[in-house]
Amino acid sequence: MQSPATYNERLSHRLVYDRDPRLKVVSDKIAVKDYVAERLGDRYNVPLLGKWRRAKDIDWAALPARFVIKPNEGSGRFALVRGEADRNPQRLRAFAQLWLKRRWFDWLAQEWGYRGIPRYIMAEPLLEGRNGGIPSEVNVFTFGGRVGLIRLFTGRKTRPERRDAWFDPTGRQLDIGVDPIRGARMELSERDRLEIVDISEKLAAGWDHLRVDLYLTSDGIKVGELTPYSWGGRAQWRPESVDAKVGALWGGETDYSIFEDFRDPALADSPPSDPLVWLRTWQDLINAGDYETSRQLFASDVVAFGSLAESMRGLAELEANQWRKIWGTIRDFRFEEPVILSDHEEAYTVAVRWSSEGQTENGGWYERRGRCTLMLQRLGPALVCTHSHFSMDPGIPARRAG
Q1: CA within 20 to 30 Å of 140's CA: 69, 175, 334, 367, which one?
Q2: pLDDT in tens, 248-266
C-alpha cells in the first residue's frame, strides 16, 4: 500500500510498516502510566493497585471491595469486581491465567507494538462516574499532535444501551458512526472540552496519530490508555464516506465542514401513541440504560418529582438527578398493570405501580418496589411525558450501590 488515503488504509499501513519504539510504550498499560506522569503529572493516572507475573500470586486480600483486573497488553479483556458477589478468586484467577497464556500479538492482533511486551495481570480501582454508577468514556483522535475528533460514550461496554456521539474540536456534534454502536445526541460541556483538548494534545505531541482514551470520573478526568491501533484498520464507518474524511484529517486536513451536523435518529418507525405501548417502550429503555432514546419520550420542559430530588424542571435535570443516579444500580424494572385516571384524546394521566431489584453497597440485590404518576400529552401522533412522580413504597430504604 504505497499511498494510503482513508483512515483504515493509513492504520493498516502503520500495522505493516511502522516500527516506532514508542509504540511499545503506549501499548503497555503499565508502562504508559510513566509516560502520562511525565507529560501531565500523576493526578491524571488511574492508580495501579498491583501487578503480578503469575495468576497464583495475586494478593486478593490486599485489593479493595471494588476493582478491575486485566492484562497489561491487548484490548477488551477485563473483569469487574463491584462487590462481594463478584469477588470469586477461583473464577478471576482462571481469567488471569488465560490472559497470560495468550499473547495479544500472537493470538489475534499482529499489532507490532504489543510484540514482546512483558506480560502482567494488573489491578486498578473501579472508577465512579460523576453522578454515581459508571463513568462516561471519551476517545480522542489526535492527528499531528492536535485534537481532530472527540468521541463520547454513555452506557456499559458490550451492552445494548451503549451509545456514542462524535464532536469536532470546537464541540460541534458530527454525523459520524461506527458499527455496531448507535449514535445519540449528547452534550459536551465547554469545561470538559477544553480540558480534554489540553490533556490529549500534551499526550499526543510528536505523534502523527494517537487515540487518547479518557474517563470522566467523580475524581476528575483520568487517562485510561493510549491507543495506536484503533479497530486494527477495520473500522466500520457509518456512512462509508467518513473513512476518507477521517483519513484526510490524518493527512493534515483542518476544514471540519467536510463533516455534516449530527441528525437525531428516529425513536421508531411508529412512535408510541398508546399509553400502554409508551409504558412498555420506556420500561425496555430503562432496563437497557438507554438515556438518549428515553429523552424522545419526554417533553423538554418536563416537571418531575422523586425520592432523590424534590423537584426537577426540564429534561436535563430529570436525567442528571434521577435517571443517571438510579438506572445503573437497578435491574429487572417492570411496570405493573396501569390505572388510567383520565383518558382524553390529547392527554392521559396514568397511575402505575413498579418493581425492580436494587443493588446494595456490598454488591447484593434487594427487592425495590414503588409507584408513580405520569402525565402523557399528545404531540402529533406520539405521546410525550410532561410530568412524572416516582416514589418507593414505605419501609424500603434507598440502598444504592457505592
Answers
A1: 69
A2: 999 999 999 999 999 876 5
